Amino acid sequence: xxxxxxxxxxxxxxxxxxxxxxxxLAVALIVIPLMLLLLAFGKQIGEWFNEKNTALSDxxxxxxxxx
Length: 67
Hints:
It comes from Rhizobium redzepovicii. The protein is about 85% helix and about 0% strand.
């Protein structure tokens, strides 16, 4: 009985390792292209956000009703 339980535990452990490798691979396939995009266009993205922030800061505030 303990032999079957040990075999089951070992098989479960090996399956989890395979699942972990798939998860790491999936995350890497998402993160690596994003990092490449940030490296390629990071300065332009930063400038765009800076322009939008300046536009929001310089915009007139909407007055409260009744003022």
